[in-house]
Structure formats: C-alpha cells, structure tokens
Specification:
This protein folds into 2 domains: 30 residues; 122 residues, Jelly Rolls (Sandwich), CATH 2.60.120. The strands form 2 sheets. The chain has a 7-stranded mixed beta sheet with strand order 6-5-8-3-2-1-9. Strands 4-7 form a two-stranded antiparallel sheet. The protein contains 4 helices and 9 strands; from the N terminus they run H-H-E-E-H-E-E-E-E-E-E-H-E. The protein is 22% helix and 34% strand. The protein is globular and about 40 Å long.
C-alpha cells in the first residue's frame, strides 16, 4: 500500500469516528425519499408556511378534485397541474368543503385567488392564464398572508 493510500484511509477512518458511522446515520444521510413529501403529494411552501397538497395531474384526478370529502385539515390541499397555461374554471358540485383557490401561472406566481362555496355550479374562472391551481380550506390563504403575486416553492414527492 502506498503512503498516499494509507493517508487517505486514515483520513476517512478519522472522519467516520468523528461523525459516527452507525446504520441510522448512514440511512438518514442516504435516504432522500424520507426528505420528500409522500408519493402523489407536494409541499407548497410560502415562506414558513407549508401546505401538503395532493397532486391532481391527470384528467381523472383533476375531474374528481376534492369532491365527496367531509373535511380537509388547514395545512392540506390539492395542487392541480395542467399541461400548459390557459384560462381555468372550477366549480364545486359534489364538493362539501368551502375552499380557496389560487391560480398560478407557469412560473408559479399567483395570478388570482377566489373563494368557492360548497355544492354549487358557479364557475370560478381565473382572470389570467394559469398552469396550476391550488385548493385549500377557505380562509387559509388569507390567514397565512398569501396574496396575488406571491410565488411558492414546490417540492414534489417521490414518483
């Protein structure tokens, strides 16, 4: 063994002893999935506020949305993802929970926020083209100080 290899091995061994090398530390360091939202979800992060949103990225998931739910926690919601920007319209038929909806453009900037009452067929249409829509329990956007123009950071779960 060369002197360089001995020095490198010695340095690595010293670092392992210094920082520990139990299996828990290694798995915590190596397991990036544990640092992500659950599969099919995303974290929508506005400053210090995080909403755990279910992803609706297929026609079937977008059509069903949050229908037939009797409750939704204050830190939960649904993120609708479309293929491109367009004027978007949502309604609340078969949706039992009053909701806020934030329409976001392709850069994730909020272009419009609407409040929607349950079990209605009133169309809630974005004032500008949107590629995403975020639904949360009514009043949660205002309670968190989320307004038009803000841009969240979005972290998607494992796929």
């Amino acid at each position: 063994m060369t002197l360089r290899k001995i020095i490198n091995c010695s340095a690595i061994l010293s670092l392992m002893l210094l920082f520990g090398c139990d299996s828990g530390s290694q798995s915590d360091f190596m397991d990036t999935e544990s640092q992500l939202p659950p599969r099919g979800h995303a974290w929508v992060i506005f400053g210090n506020d995080t909403i755990t949103a279910e992803i609706a990225d297929t026609p079937q998931l977008r059509e069903r949305g949050l229908m037939f739910r009797n409750e939704l926690s204050d830190d939960a919601g649904m993120l609708f993802i479309f293929e491109g920007e367009a004027i978007r319209s949502f309604w609340m038929e078969n949706t039992f929970i009053p909701l806020d909806i934030a329409f976001l453009d392709r850069t994730l900037a909020i272009v419009d926020i609407r409040q929607m009452q349950p079990q209605t067929q009133v169309l809630h249409t974005s004032s500008s083209p949107a590629m995403y829509a975020l639904e949360v329990p009514q009043g949660q956007l205002a309670a968190r100080g989320i307004t038009v123009g803000q841009r969240p950071r979005v972290v998607f779960g494992a796929r």
